[in-house]
Amino acid sequence: MRLLLVEDDKDLQRLLKKALTDSGYVVDSATDGEEGHFLGDTEPYDAVILDLGLPKMDGVRVLEKWRRDGKTMPVLILTARDRWSDKVAGFDAGADDYLAKPFVTEELLARVRALLRRAAGLAHSEIEIGPLRIDTRASRVTVNGNPVKLTSLEYRLLSYLAHHKGKVVSRTELVEHLYDQDFDRDSNTIEVFVGRLRKKLDTDLIQTVRGLGYCLDEKQSDSK
Amino acid sequence: MTLAARLRLNSLAGRLIAAAAVWTLFALVAGGLILSNAFRTSVQDDFDSELRSELDQLVAAAGHDPNGEILLDRQYLSVKYQPVYSGKYWEITSIGKAEKPLISRSLLDHSLVFADKEYLADRFVAGHGDGPDGQHLRILGRRIDFSIDATAKTDDSRGYMFYVAADMGDLTARIDSFNGTLFWSFAVLGLGLVAAVFLQVRIGLQPLRRVTLALHRIRDGSARRLDGRFPSEIEPLASELNSLIEHSAEVVGRARSYVSNLAHFLKTPLTVLASEAAAQPGPLADQVNRQVETMRRQVDHYLARARAAGALDVLGNRAAVAQALEDLARTLRRIHRDRPVAIDIVCPPNLAFRGERQDLEEMAGNLMDNACKWAASRVRVTARPGGAQFTLVVEDDGPGLTPDERAQVGERGERLDESVPGSGLGLAIVRDIAKLYGGALDLDASDLGGLATILTLPAIA
Fold it and tell me: Mean pLDDT in chain B?
């Protein structure tokens, strides 16, 4: 999953970016409202963590502009302004969740997980697809009860497909959501990773839809 | 009520009208007296000069014989002297010799007696006396000396007093009639003048009434400044008041932004501290966490009070309650979308809170958020108007609190249950803000099964 973090305080930004990356996310960051707005506008993100008190453009304005331009990614607002009138304004501008400072990082991670789950239409932190079980809180994968060891990128790939269960995900989409903007994008490596993932899972859950992409579903059927 | 207040001398209008009335009364009385006097003098002078010419006639009609005896040619005298008690009389009395005076036929059996007398130039004498038939007479007299030719002495003479008198009844009647007319016409004039002053004052002071109405609108929050054009005497007052309102709002706005900035710049470092401590567990981390938590609570507590304290001094604060509750419900439905809680709001559409909208949202938001956290499926918000105050009741169908627990939470704002974050402190902040507005927060059991929080706040009637 690819996240955008817009936070002007350098220390906090560093801290949060590390925590998010450690949890298996790919994180792009911005330190002011204009840069943040631009990134959110041009790059595909699975979720955005947006501080409100930003230089150059206020967080609420950034959010309003995104929503007006049709950007629907879930947005979590971070701010010291925790008056109810600010919360009302934040949600009316299009926020999906609101976290007041000071907070503990664990709280932030849990909220991000919930945002992503909600966006995928999933109700619980555990995703079950046939024999496959993914504990998104602990980043652990089991198949038929047996734990499967995955690299960070393999987990990210599986998690993304699981969050888009039943949908066909193109290679390009995978490239955009699994690598940050500085990485050299090469969609062929995706094929390699999918192959490796399939071998580790040892199931038919990941199907290839020729010409379109991949799909993770519990229905076992022939791909074409 | 003091006499001054009773006479409404506390009001400008009262003072102006009272002063005008007093002056009018004084001027009219003085004027009336002067006019009356002038008329009386004029009429009396006419009367007297007529009397004077009659005296001259009498003297002219009187001749004398060589012994100095009066020879009166009565046919030269007016017919008015004929009828008995006609009101016109003459009398000629001899000075020195005791002789019977000659009198007019009208005088009959009376004589002219002075009640008061004054001596004038040229041997004239004038005065008043009582005449026959209850008449009051004006008497004019003159001493005439006739020289006696019969004797050898050249300067031998006989003196006579010639008197004419006229009844003043007519004169008095004319003066009385004039005075009467004068009195009534001046009375009407006086009333008319006072009425005119009354109207002028009311119309003239209208701008002040406009100012009062405008101030009422500001207090009610339906206007933010004194609008309209005012006469030059009041214009400075109006513009000063507007400046004051603006300045006051500016000061509050600035204070609020300082407070917001403090929140922002204090809470971010606290977040960093808390997160770093979480990353390296140990005794230091525990201490850091505890202190961060204390700092966070204190900052929240005093920031909330600082924000609300300014609200009381600002003129014309007004917040629509129904709108605020709808906004909060909308936001809360999104925050608690993972839980199936229904929020019902009952609120009269025109109910207005006499205070800052942000403070109303803070209080209602905390109460409604708490209710949503604890509710099983339902939260009910009811706003009831009640004259100078209104009540806002937030109820949930959750587990509720026992009476002891209610007392504990209400008093010290402690959190009873750590598993649902932020309940106790939120209530303490609500209670503090409510108190600042002269209101109150009470807790009770709800008939939905859970807790009922009852907020009482000032309303704009």
Answer: 84
